Amino acid sequence: MTHFRYDLLATDGAARLGRLHTAHGVVDTPAFMPVGTAGTVKAMLPESVAATGAQMVLGNTYHLMLRPNAERVARLGGLHAFMNWPGPILTDSGGFQVMSLSKLRKMDADGVTFQSHIDGSSHRLTPEISMDIQRLLDADVTMAFDECTPFPATPEQAAISMRLSMRWAARSKQAFVARPGYGLFGIVQGGVYPELRAESAAALKDIGFDGYAVGGLAVGEGQEMMLATLDTTTPQLPADRPRYLMGVGRPSDIIGAVLRGIDMFDCVMPTRSGRTAQAFTRRGTVNLRNARHQDDPRPLEEDCGCPACRGYSRAYLHHLIRSEEILGPMLLTWHNIQAYQDLMRGLRAAIAEGRVQAFAAEAARLEALGDVEAM
Amino acid sequence: MTHFRYDLLATDGAARLGRLHTAHGVVDTPAFMPVGTAGTVKAMLPESVAATGAQMVLGNTYHLMLRPNAERVARLGGLHAFMNWPGPILTDSGGFQVMSLSKLRKMDADGVTFQSHIDGSSHRLTPEISMDIQRLLDADVTMAFDECTPFPATPEQAAISMRLSMRWAARSKQAFVARPGYGLFGIVQGGVYPELRAESAAALKDIGFDGYAVGGLAVGEGQEMMLATLDTTTPQLPADRPRYLMGVGRPSDIIGAVLRGIDMFDCVMPTRSGRTAQAFTRRGTVNLRNARHQDDPRPLEEDCGCPACRGYSRAYLHHLIRSEEILGPMLLTWHNIQAYQDLMRGLRAAIAEGRVQAFAAEAARLEALGDVEAM
Question: Taking CA atoms, what residue in A is nearest to B72?
Fold first, then answer.
């Protein structure tokens, strides 16, 4: 029987190489989790997601509770069987999407009542309901139910919001049904205010979680302020637990956060960009819709091993985008997830070899060079 | 050096088992060619298309000449390299799509001038231009340029249209640049009138082609009249050349045509249906959008080996369709192409073993039973 466990294998400055053990398998960290919002990493077969090196995906409680609904997923064998992803799954708590997607919602001290963005039906989330839904989904990592503090927020607003989230974190811990191999993560809030972040981290440590997430960032504060917040926050987190920066980010955000001791990431950017013709390469983003690619026989990225780069020219990818062919999003999403997984693999190797600063400097140099124009 | 050749390996009544040799490989017949309209079999990676057993795909001259244009495809190494399909490719002549997709067109004895449905730009197709475009695309099988006779048409209209197509067929033969492994097919026209079909077949045989297509069917005349037309037409075609029924069809259409001596097929039905939630099974079509599937843990088709049937429940496929997830069309298209290739494989085995009539009867019996409802 697998116990939920995080092994810290090596450090390089604040950067950490580790391994997370869950009921459905191990995850080498630093790790990037592709987002499988509604039970699918958009435009990808799950075996293709796994082929990129991804070991864990994220599912959205908000989306899945509305459609197909958690009880149905449970009857069909849980989210792993439902979406044909046998590996580890993390689900968020639903709180963030209620704020970002539902137009009509009513907060109270106990939870939030909201209208579905799909059909207007009324639903409710509380810490207890969120724990129950994530248990029905069979998530290896369950996230505590919290309120995502808006940005900007005054120190007073941020404090009120954070303290509500800490009371909900205690109720989440209370409601979470412990099972071997399954973990519950608390979420540090407190906006961009170091003393609030410290208070939040202390409150969560008092409750005790299997992992600690940093929430409420990547909401408009900018990379510099985000990394500054991590500078003061990650030292407050227990070294023997995984640390997850929610909803982040661009490759340079991820590198900056890994240098500050973050182990886990998720973001819709590689998948969403794959559906809007934006490709991530080591030399920055490339917009395949641009007419400069229409006669370019070169692959998107020379030394990438993904199917998009192995089998096709930029001219073809451009043609797919212009023709609105489904294969365009399929190939670009695959490339982007591959690029993110290659980045994480590179970071892990660099930490293991004590050269993560040099790795970060080289990544920044390449990105600054920009895309190579065709002759 | 491969010479373009058709080997007739066995017959079972009028049904034929054969093998077509082309510059880019062999095609076992009877064969169904998935349609790769704009240089992609929609929602499929080419290696997935090949994994279903498909050996040859179809490209549309009309679409490819407008975008990305034939000269560009040629500069990029031809259609095989462009779309990453190393196997045989057949291109149509463009005539049919000019009639069905372009709103403004002007026919004359020499060819047709038309407006692009994409940007309104003016283009021209003649037998000579169509041969040139198909050569630039590097099609293993080039189709003669013809006019698709509308349905219904009076005998007089059908005769005038057919005779124009026969003059264009002669010009196509004249303009076609013979190369080892590459073939040119003529197209029998004449609507639903046996004497016109006979006149057309005789005219094409006089010109001499590497294969003979039957065109102008599946345009609204119904299965019975289509098969009756084949009854009188295929006996007029040379036994040592492949026979291709253009744009057909449903599984029962294909079985009926194979029983009448047809060797090759193409149709958008499996791919288009895959994007509109319609799945082909041996027990008829199944609409995955229907709410009856929402709790059904069974696979779409029990003994199908495609990824959609191996890895997912009907409930999940239904969820993907309802959520408008790209993976829905991806999986259903894959299943439908697999179902069509399995049908062709079954037909080939049955012809080889002299039991094609029994195969056809069993297929009709299963389809009449209809889909198995969940308990």
Answer: A295
Closest CA to A200 of A227, A170, A222: A170
pLDDT in tens, B182-212: 999 999 999 999 999 999 999 999 999 999 9
Q: E-assigned strands of A189-269?
A: 211-214, 243-245, 264-266
Rounded Cα distance, B89 and A279, in Å? 30
Let me know the angle formed at the C-alpha of B362 by B358 and B363, rounded to the nearest 5 degrees: 115
B228-243 burial code (b ≥16 CB/10 A, e <16): ebbebbbebbeeebbb
Q: Please provide the average confidence, as pLDDT, over all residues in chain B.
A: 96
CA distance B20 to B27: 5
Among this protein's residues, is B110 annotated catalytic?
no
Question: CB–CB of B76 and A45 under 8 A?
Answer: no
Q: Are B328 and B321 in contact (CB under 8 A)?
A: yes
ipTM above threshold 0.90: yes
CB A219 within 8 A of CB A191: no
- CB-closest option in B46, B76, B325 to A38: B325
Q: Give the tokens for residue A196.
A: 């609030």
Contacts of B93 (CB under 8 A, 6+ apart): B61, B125, B130, B134, B142, B143, B144, B145, B146, B172, B187
Do B294 and A320 lie within an 8 Å CB cutoff?
no
Residue A99 has what pLDDT? Answer: 86
Extract the runs of DSSP E, i.e. beta strands, from chain B: 5-12, 15-22, 25-29, 31-33, 57-59, 89-91, 105-107, 112-115, 122-125, 141-143, 183-188, 211-214, 243-245, 264-266, 278-281, 284-287
Contacts of A331 in chain B (CB under 8 A): 45
Is-contact A297 A315, C-beta < 8 A? yes
Express each pLDDT in B296-317 by its tens digit.
Answer: 999 999 999 999 999 999 999 9
Preceding peptide of A274 cis, ω within 30°: no
Burial of A291 (0-12, 13-18, 19+ CB in 10 A): exposed
- HSE, CB side, 13 Å, CA atoms: give it for residue A184: 26
Q: Determine the 3-state secondary structure of B185 from DSSP.
A: strand
Which of A40, A76, A331 lies at the smallest CB-CB distance from B320? A40
Give dist(CA A70, CA A99) in Å, integer: 20
Please say if B92 is a catalytic residue: yes
Cis ω for the linkage preceding B152 (within 30 of 0) = yes
Whole-number Å distance between alpha carbons of A114 and B70: 54
Boundaries of every domain in chain A: 5-267, 274-369
Mean pLDDT computed over B14-23: 98
**B105-107 sheet: strands from edge to edge:** B105-107, B112-115, B122-125
Which residue of A46, A311, A319 is in closest CB contact with B68? A319
- Residues belonging to chain A with any Cβ–Cβ distance to chain B shorter than 8 Å: 38-40, 42-47, 67-68, 72, 75-77, 82-84, 275, 294-295, 297, 307, 311-313, 315-316, 319-320, 322-323, 325-327, 329-331
Q: Give the whole-angstrom CA distance, residue B2 versus residue B262.
A: 24
Q: How far apart are CA B262 and CA B6, in angstroms?
A: 13
CATH 3.20.20.105 fits A5-267, yes or no: yes
CA–CA separation, B138 and A268 (whole Å): 40
Structure tokens, B359: 């195969």
Mean pLDDT confidence for B83-93: 98
